Amino acid sequence: xxxxxxKTVSRLLPALVTAVASLTLWAVWLxxxxxxxxxxxxxxxxxxxxxxxxxxxxxLLLPLYWAASRRHILxxxxxxxxxxxxxxxxxxxxxxxxxxVIGVTMVMLGSVAATTGVSFLIAAMGPRLTRRLxx
Length: 135
Hints:
Blueprint: H1 7-29, E1 37-38, E2 44-45, H2 50-68, H3 73-92, H4 100-133
Antiparallel strand pairs: 1-2
């Protein structure tokens, strides 16, 4: 009996794993902070702090590395982008002004650009990086 995954499943698995990881990590890092902070001068910030976004980006490197080091660059980019875009759309869609669409578009374009560059870098460094990290 052949225990290997069918080709279709093995091709979709990196995109599915990175998409689920992106959705989950968004919820962990950004999903719980929904209120804006008021400054003494009356202006507001947030709802996210810089450390939350940095934490999200750093933890997204693990599933991205998993997919890109196996040369599944398209799956890594598509999965991460789909996950982050869906999470930001869900999180921000209650904005009555409708401007959330601009933010979601910026998340989508930024994640495509960043994950493409990082994925190609990981794939290019591939075996050397894996040996150094002893993964």
